[in-house]
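Researcher: Sequence recovery benchmark, item below. Answer with residues only.
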């Protein structure tokens, strides 16, 4: 047997070389992901979500406060009396000083006036509060509508 040979040593194909490099990188990446996801504290994640929800609620009070009720023209003067309830559907946010936008409509449903009233009260989460107000109205007003447009953080 001769030590000198004319045969060339076999080279690995490019595909096998790529597999030998890529597969260990993917395995190491998957292990790192699994280990990092196990190290998360569920309580910390819960509080992060609660704080995020709370910030969303405080940034959008008109999305979580709604007002409904009934109204009638008072006997004396051009005023309307509005009795209603404000419902806070937020899970975390407590609001105060809700701003009520009141619109007055004519017999033909044309908006003929509006006013804003601040209801100085605290509105805790998931609770309903009543209100009773009197507001000046245009003489031609036959209908009244209202909605919460803003509130401040308590």
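Model:
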């Amino acid at each position: 047997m001769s030590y000198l040979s004319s045969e060339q040593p076999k080279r690995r194909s490019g595909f096998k070389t790529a597999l030998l490099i890529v597969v260990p990188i993917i395995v190491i990446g998957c292990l790192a992901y699994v280990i990092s996801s196990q190290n998360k504290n569920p309580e910390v994640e819960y509080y992060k979500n609660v704080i995020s929800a709370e910030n969303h609620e405080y940034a959008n009070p008109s999305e979580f406060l709604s007002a409904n009720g009934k109204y009638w023209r008072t006997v004396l003067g051009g005023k309307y009396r509005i009795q209603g309830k404000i419902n806070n559907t937020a899970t975390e946010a407590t609001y105060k000083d809700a701003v009520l936008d009141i619109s007055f409509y004519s017999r033909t449903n044309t908006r003929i006036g509006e006013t804003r009233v601040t209801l100085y009260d605290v509105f805790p989460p998931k609770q309903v509060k009543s209100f009773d107000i009197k507001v000046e109205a245009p003489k031609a007003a036959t209908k009244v509508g209202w909605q919460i447009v803003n509130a401040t953080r308590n």
